[in-house]
Amino acid sequence: MTDYFRLIRPLNCFMAGVAVLIGCLVGAGSGIITYESQIALAFAVGFVVTAGGNAINDFCDAKIDAINKPHRPIPSGRISPRSAFALAISLFGIGIVLSYFINPICFLIAAANSLLLMGYAYKLKRTVLWGNVSIGYLTGSTFLFGGAAVNKIVITFILFLLAMLATVGREIVKDIEDIKGDKKEGLTTLPISAGVKKSAIIASAFVIMAVILSPLPIVLSNFGISYLATVTLADVILLLGITIIEKYPARSSSLLKGGMMVALLAFIVGAMTG
Description:
It is a single chain. This protein is mainly alpha-helical. It folds into 2 domains: about 1-150, UbiA prenyltransferase (Tetracycline Repressor, domain 2); about 155-274, Four Helix Bundle (Hemerythrin (Met), subunit A), CATH 1.20.120. The chain has 14 helices and no strands. It is flat and about 55 Å long.
């Protein structure tokens, strides 16, 4: 049983569930108490679909892990590839079925994310830029799913866009940071194929788009001065992060992560005070 927990990475799954809960909070605000059953189901879906994604990822990476991570459950022989695949499909199925009992939008998101997680593990993670975009979408969609669960998808759609754009930018920066190791592994990331300078420009473009869109909740919702003050701080941190991508990618990645955390706090503050 311990090996199956290692396969699905429960802490990672829990964090995905927490992201869904934050989406619920941002969407419903002070009215969140009226959506208890939907929120419980949404958390469960976020947890099990992420677990399925982790399992299918290890299934597809079994040959690589046999070299780089031989202690993992599949390459070590403690879990067979067939069992891992069956577990992944079962978890995706459970998540999709549970989402059906929330509402149709949640059902569509859960089904789409399950398919994307399979596609990412099998092919997309090894492609230039599309792997980064997939991670960006999957990260942002947890908030979108939470908003959909409480029937407040508009404001969380903005959060989804901001999270996706900033995450794609940071994922490219992380690829710049890892360029030496990725070359040794024979990977083809954006920095390897396009160069560090062009990759830094592309990463900056994604982050700048997120910054430009950050005032939208004030226009489209009742977010006020508290949101504006907090998200402005987040924007400053994000912009600082992109100024040092080429010289200090690791430090840039940390700044971008910090800016994203502050931006998330801005949405929470805006939802609770708006």
